[in-house]
C-alpha cells in the first residue's frame, strides 16, 4: 500500500446541470459546454463537459487516498484524452501505484466513461508524505 | 452566459511571454464546499480542496484574456499543490503565456499559473495546454 488509505473509485454523473454548475464556478461559458446549437456545429457534434469536470472525481479519490488533503508538493500531470458528454458517468480508477527508491509515491490513474479513458494522470507524492 | 465570457483573440495576437493582470479571488467556505465533493453536493471543509486549483486556472485565463476563445479545447494540464491553506482566504492568480507551438497542424498555447496566498507565499502552481480555435495552421486551409 502506497497511500495512507486505500484508493476508492469515485463516480460523477455528468448531467447538463453539473456542466452549468461548473461553468458558473469556473466562469467558463465556452459554447462547447453550454450552447447546444454551437456545440452541435463543432467537431464534437454536441455538448461536451469542461475537461476539469471530468478530472474532478479523480481529485476527490486522490484526496481520500491521501487522508483528506493532498500532501505539500504533490504533482499531478494530466492528459485529456476524450470528451465527456451529458449523462456520462465518469469513474476515477487507480491503474498502478508504486514507491520509488527515493521514497516518492507514483500513482497512475484514469477517469473512464464505461471502457473509454477520458482523462489519464500521473501523480507524484513527495517522500514521507504518503507512507 | 455572462457578458465578456468569450473572446476572438487570434493565436497570432497572443504574444509569447504575455503576463496577465493578477486575478484576486476570495475562496470562501461555500465555493470550497461545492468543490470538495461530487458536483451538485456541498461538503464542508476547513482547507482549500484540490478541485479549486483547476477552477482558479480557468478563471485566470478568462480574466487575463478578457474571455475564453469559443472552441478552445483543453489538452493537457499540470497541478502542483504547494501548501494547504485554511479557509476562507483570498488568493492571487498570475498567468503567463509560456509556449506557443503548432503540432500536427494544430496550434497549441501553454499557460503557466501561480497561485499565492494573502501573505504572498506560493500555495499552488501549474499549467494548461489548450488547442487554439484559430491559428496559422487553421487559416492556411487545412
Number of helices of chain A: 4
Please outline the major beta sheet of chain A.
Answer: 5 strands, antiparallel
Write down the overall mean pLDDT of chain A: 93
Low-pLDDT sequence parts of chain B: 1-5
Give the strand line-up of the largest sheet of chain B: 2-5-6-7-4
- By DSSP, the count of extended strands of chain B is 7
The coarse overall form of chain B would be elongated
Sum up the overall morphology of chain A in one term.
Answer: elongated
Architecture overview:
The complex is a heterodimer of chains A (131) and B (142). Chain A has helices at residues 16-26, 31-34, 36-40, 51-65, and strands spanning 10-14, 74-80, 88-99, 105-113, 116-125. Chain A starts with 9 loop residues before the first strand and ends in a 6-residue tail after the last strand. The mean pLDDT of chain A is 93. With 131 residues, chain A is an alpha+beta fold. Helices cover 27% and strands 33% of the residues of chain A. In chain A, strands 1-3-4-5-2 form a five-stranded antiparallel sheet. Chain B has helices spanning 29-35, 52-65, 136-139; strands at 6-7, 23-27, 68-69, 73-81, 89-103, 106-116, 122-131. The two termini of chain B are 31 Å apart. With 142 residues, chain B is α+β, with helices and mostly antiparallel strands. In chain B, the strands form two sheets. A five-stranded antiparallel sheet of chain B has the order 2-5-6-7-4. The longest helix of chain B is centred in the middle third of the chain and has 14 residues, at 52-65. In chain B, 18% of the residues lie in helices and 38% in strands. At the A-B interface, strand 1, helix 1, helix 2, helix 4 and strand 2 of A face helix 1, helix 2 and strand 4 of B.
Amino acid at each position: 500500500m502506497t497511500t495512507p488509505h486505500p484508493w476508492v473509485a469515485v463516480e460523477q454523473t455528468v448531467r447538463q446541470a453539473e456542466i452549468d454548475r461548473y461553468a458558473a464556478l469556473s466562469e467558463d461559458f465556452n459554447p462547447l459546454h453550454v450552447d447546444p446549437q454551437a456545440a452541435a456545429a463543432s467537431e464534437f457534434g454536441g455538448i461536451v463537459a469542461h475537461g476539469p469536470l471530468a478530472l474532478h472525481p479523480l481529485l476527490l479519490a486522490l484526496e481520500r487516498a491521501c487522508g483528506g488533503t493532498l500532501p505539500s508538493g504533490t504533482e499531478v500531470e494530466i492528459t485529456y484524452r476524450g470528451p465527456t458528454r451529458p449523462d456520462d458517468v465518469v469513474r476515477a480508477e487507480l491503474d498502478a501505484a508504486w514507491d520509488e527508491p527515493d521514497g516518492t509515491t507514483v500513482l497512475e490513474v484514469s477517469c473512464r466513461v464505461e471502457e473509454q479513458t477520458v482523462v489519464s494522470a500521473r501523480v507524484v507524492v513527495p517522500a514521507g508524505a504518503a507512507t | 452566459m455572462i457578458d465578456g465570457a468569450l473572446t476572438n483573440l487570434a493565436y497570432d495576437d497572443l504574444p509569447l511571454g504575455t503576463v496577465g493582470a493578477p486575478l484576486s479571488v476570495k475562496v470562501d467556505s461555500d465555493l470550497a464546499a461545492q468543490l470538495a465533493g461530487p458536483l451538485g453536493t456541498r461538503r464542508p471543509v476547513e482547507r482549500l480542496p484540490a478541485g479549486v486549483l483547476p477552477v482558479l486556472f480557468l478563471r485566470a485565463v478568462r480574466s487575463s484574456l478578457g474571455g475564453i476563445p469559443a472552441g478552445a479545447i483543453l489538452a493537457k494540464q499540470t497541478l502542483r499543490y504547494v501548501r494547504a491553506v485554511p479557509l476562507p482566504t483570498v488568493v492571487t492568480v498570475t498567468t503567463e503565456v509560456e509556449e506557443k507551438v503548432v503540432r500536427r497542424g494544430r496550434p497549441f498555447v501553454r499557460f503557466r499559473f501561480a497561485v499565492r496566498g494573502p501573505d504572498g507565499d506560493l500555495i499552488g502552481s501549474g499549467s494548461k495546454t489548450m488547442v487554439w480555435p484559430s491559428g496559422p495552421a487553421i487559416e492556411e486551409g487545412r
